[in-house]
Amino acid sequence: MDRFVLTDAQWAKMEPLCLGKKTDRGRSGQDNRLFIEAVLWIARTGSPWRDLPTYFGRWNSVYSRYSDWMKAGVFKRLFEAVSDEADMEYAMIDGTVVRV
Q1: Which position among 13, 14, 45, 63 has the lowest Cβ density within 10 Å, counted as fewest Cβ atoms?
Q2: pLDDT one-digit tens code per residue, 16-49
Q3: Quick count: other Cβ atoms within 10 Å of Cβ 51?
């Protein structure tokens, strides 16, 4: 994959908060940035985990890792790390749900 959704500046803020770094005890992740990109792909597309493209890795491994990170509260910390500069580029209101 040659194009990332995350900018290098966003990744620099997130990287120290990720689990599975070389300095962490236990197993370490192969590529945390690619894993985050996989989770963002699922969130953007709304696709089921089984439809995750193969360049992100095996879908069940990515899901298992996602589940572990959710239980550990990692995504909350990552969101807080990058939310100081909110990008409203993709914010929109769907008129089919707004009741007048």
Answers
A1: 45
A2: 888 765 555 555 567 888 999 999 999 989 999 9
A3: 11
